Known about the structure:
The protein is of the alpha/beta class. It folds into 2 domains: 5-53, Helicase, Ruva Protein, domain 3 (Orthogonal Bundle), CATH 1.10.8; 70-193, Dna Topoisomerase Vi A Subunit, Chain: A, domain 2 (3-Layer(aba) Sandwich), CATH 3.40.1360.10. The chain is built from 7 helices and 6 strands. A 4-stranded parallel β-sheet has the order 4-3-5-6. The protein has a two-stranded antiparallel ribbon with strand order 1-2. Helix 6 links the parallel strand 5 (138-141) and strand 6. The chain is globular and about 60 Å long. The termini are far apart.
Amino acid sequence: MEYIAPLQNLIDKFALIRGVGRKTAVRYAFSVLSMSDEAAGAFADAIVAAKRDIRHCKICGNLADGEICKICSDDKRETSVICVVEDERTLMAIENVKEFKGVYHVLGGAISPVNDIGPDKLRIAELIERVNAGGIDEVIIATNPTVDGEMTAMYISRLLSSSGVKITRLAYGVPVGADIENADEVTLTRALDGRREI
C-alpha cells in the first residue's frame, strides 16, 4: 500500500535512524500522527534543540551542552585514568555501573578498513596528545570485542607503548547467567585471560 506523501515522507525520515526498519518507521510515523498538535510540536522542538545545543566536549569528545562535559568538569574524577571508548553510548553504559571514577576519551568509532574508517577519522591523535601532556597513569581501552574494536585497541596500544603509561584492556568473558558449555572459543579465551583471584 502506498501512503499519502506527507506520511511517506515522515516514514522515510524515521527509517533514516540506524536500527529502525520499515515496520518500526511506519509505527513511529503513526504514533506521531496520533499526538496532539502541542505534543507533536514539542517533539519536533526537542529534535531541533538537541541537534542545535548538543556538541562534543573539547577534552574527551563526550556529548556536552557547553564546551566541556559534566565528567571532565567534575573535580572528583580521577583524571590520571582515561577509559577509551568507541562512542558515547558505551561511555553511558560504563557510567551506569557507577564503578569507574576516572575520565573518558571518545574515539568516535573504530578503525574499519571495510567502511573506509582509518585512524585519521577518529579522535586518536587527541588521545595521544592527552597522554603526552602528562599526568596520566593508565589508559583503559574499552573498545568493543569485535574485529574492528580489537584492531583499534591494538593500534592504540602500539602508539602508546613507549609512553610509560600503563595500558590495559577490559576483560571479556562468560556473561552472568550463561552456561559455559554454550560459550564460543573467543569468549572462553577472554574469560581465562581476564580471570582474577577470589
